[in-house]
Structures are given as structure tokens and as C-alpha cells.
Amino acid sequence: MTRRFGLFLVAAALASPAVLSAHDDHRRYEHYYDDDGRDWHDWNEHEERAYRMYLHEQRRQYREWARCNRDERRAYWRWRHNHPDGVLFRGPR
User: Fold this and answer.
1) Disulfide engineering: 43 pairs with which of 26, 30, 36, 72, CB 3.0-4.6 Å?
2) How many domains are there within the chain?
3) Segment 23-36, tens digit of pLDDT
4) Is 56 part of any domain?
């Protein structure tokens, strides 16, 4: 019985860093729902980069996404659906 308990403790100790890092990855970004597109978006570094491209194209000053109102967000999501990752983030030719 103590041998099994010891093996359980070793397995738990080895697995805990993987569980903790997966939990940390989940909290690195927020999730936002696009009402018009009826889909969810993860707001991460990649989406932040696309958002900055949108602001540059629209000639707008940077405004933190969390502070944008509903109309500003809707305009961005419309733009974003017309500019998928393959168009925005092409590799070198």
C-alpha cells in the first residue's frame, strides 16, 4: 500500500508542472464574442497585432481594446473577418 502511495506522489509531482503551465496558458488572453460573426475570438498577441494593423489602416490612434465601446468593436470584427490571418500575416516571399 505504501509503495502505491509513493508512486502516486511521484506521479503527481511530475505531472503538476504540466497542469500548472496549461492553466497559465489559458489565462494569457481574454475571449470576446463577435455578435455579427457569431463566433468567439481569443484576444492574444496575434489579435493585438491585427488590431494595431486595423487602427493604422483606419488612421486611428491606439486605444486599449478593453476600453473600446460596442460600435468600435463591431467595426473591428467586420474588418477582421475580411482580413484573415493568411492575408495579414504572410511570410516573406
Assistant:
1) 30
2) 1
3) 555 556 799 999 99
4) yes
Range of the domain at 80: 2-88
Mean pLDDT of 33-53: 93
Distance CA 24, CA 45 (A): 15
Q: Say which residue the cell 495579414 belongs to.
A: 88
The predicted pLDDT at position 24 comes to 52
The answer to whether residue 73 sits within a structural domain is: yes
The grid coordinates listed for 52 are 494595431
26: in domain: yes
Q: Which among 73, 71, 50, 51 is positioned nearest to 62, based on CA atoms? A: 51
CA neighbor of 37 nearest in space, from 62, 74, 90: 74
C-alpha cell at 29: 488572453
